[in-house]
Amino acid sequence: MFDCVSKKDYFDYFHLKGMAVLKYSGCTLFRERLVAACLSGKLLKVDKIRADDDTQPGLHDFEANFLRLLEKLSDGCDIEINETGTMLKFRPGLLTGGRIVHDCGTSRSIGWFVEAIIPMCVFCKDSVRLSLTGITNDALDTSVDVLRAVTFPLLRNFGIEGASIVVKKRGCFPKGGGYVEITLPVVRELKPIHVTDCGLIARVRGVAFCAKVSPTIVARVIDSARGVLNKLLPDVHITSDHVRGADSGLSAGYSLSLVAESTTGALLSVESTAGGPKAVTGETPEDVGKAGALKLLEEIERGGVIDTTHQPLAIMLMVLGPEDVSKVRFGSALTVQAIKTLKLIRDALWCRLQD
Questions:
Q1: All structural domains of the chain with their residue ranges
Q2: Could you tell me the pLDDT band of residue 188, with boundaries at 50, 70 and 90?
Q3: What is the mean pLDDT of residues 241-247?
Q4: Which helix H or strand E contains 12, and what residues bound it?
Q5: CA 6 to CA 60: how far, in whole Å?
Q6: pTM check: above 0.85
Q7: Residue 83 burial by CB count (10 A; 0-12/13-18/19+): exposed, middle or buried?
C-alpha cells in the first residue's frame, strides 16, 4: 500500500495497540531509518522533511523510489505520506525477497539503493535476485565496481556467501541507462567478525571505464593514477574497460575505482568520477586519475581494515549478528555517517538486543 493519506490511519491504530514507535525529524539517514524499522519491526514516523525548503519541500523522487523498492522486498508494509510530502509514516511488513525488477531512476545511482538494503536482504524469506536499471557510476554514490570488488567480499566475513553482481550495461550521470543483476543470499545467522590486523599494503587494483568517449581517455586516467602510486608501490594494475554501443548507456562519462589490498586481506576502496553535480570546471582525465590516487593514499593513511565508505554497513551487520563479541578496526576516526548509524542502532535495535 503506497498512497497519500490513506483512509485508515494505520499508524495511529497500531500505536494505540502498544507497538514501539521510532520518531525522527528531517531527511537525515532516510534509508537507514527505514531499514532499521524493517529489521526491528517498529513503526516509523518522520516529520519536518525539508519543511524549510521553499523550492522543493518534502520527499525527493529518489526517496519515494526507495520506498517503492522496500514495498517490493516486503509484504504487508503500509506507507502514509501527507500532501506536502513533509511527513512519512511507515509500518514494516514481512521481508519476503525473491525476484525483484526495479528502476532506480536517474537522481541517485544503483549503489545508493543496494548498499542500504543489504542488511535487509540477508534476512528475507527467500534469496533476493535484483534486476536494477539506472546509473551505475556517478560522483556521489558507491559504484557497481566498488560493490563488486569490496562490498560483497566484505560480506563473506559475516558468513554471507554467494553474493554477486553482474554489470550488463553501464550507465553514467545524468541519463543513466545502466543495467545490473544482483544476487544476495539468505543466511540463518551472521557470524561474529574479528578483523583488527591492517597489515601492509601489498598491491593496488582498479578499473577505469569510459562510455561514449574516446578510449584514449581511459589511458590518460590510468597513466595519471599510476604516476602517483608507482612512486610508492610497484604492484599496481588498473584494468581499462571501454564500453560502446548499446552497453554504454545513455550518457557519456568515465570513472576510476581503486582498491588497495593489504597482506592480511583488508580492502580499502576509493573512487574518482568525471562530471556530476560537483564537477570541477576544466576537469581533465589527468585530474580524475590523480585525484583517485591521492584519495587512496589518504584512505591508507587513516589505517583500519574497513574503509570509510563501508563503516556504516559493517556496524549494522555487527549488531545484527549473534550475541558474541565482534571486533573491527576502523582506523583513525569514525565518519559522521558511522556515528549517526550508531545512534540509530541505539534507538531502533538496542531494546531488541537487551531482550
A1: 2-192
A2: confident
A3: 90
A4: helix 10-16
A5: 20
A6: yes
A7: exposed
CATH C-level class of 2-192: alpha beta
CB 233 within 8 A of CB 263: no
CA atoms within 13 A on the CB side of 85: 15
pLDDT at 327 over 90: yes
Distance between CA 346 and CA 340 in Å, rounded?
Answer: 10
Distance CA 78, CA 14 (A): 11
- Which residues on adjacent β-strands are paired with residue 236? 204
Cell reading at 209: 571505464
Decide if pLDDT at 314 tops 90. Answer: yes
Q: What is the DSSP string of 177-236?
A: -EEEEEEE---SSPPP-EE-----EEEEEEEEEEESS-THHHHHHHHHHHHHHTTT-S-E
Residue 101 β-bridge partners: 131
- Stretch 40-67: mean pLDDT, rounded? 94
Tell me the per-residue pLDDT of 17-52, one tens digit each, with 9 for 90 and over: 456 789 999 999 999 999 999 999 999 999 999 999
User: How many other CB atoms are found less than 10 A from the CB of residue 279?
Assistant: 12
pLDDT of residue 9: 54
Q: What is the dihedral of CA 28, 30, 35, 41, to 10 degrees?
A: 90
Scan for cell 562490498, then name that residue: 151
* Distance separating alpha carbons of residues 340 and 106, to the nearest angstrom: 26
Amino acid 241: pLDDT? 94
Model pLDDT, residue 19? 60
C-alpha cell, 227: 604516476
Ramachandran class of 243: left when φ > 0, alpha when ψ lies in -120 to 50, beta otherwise: beta
Q: CA 121, CA 268: separation in Å to the nearest integer?
A: 24
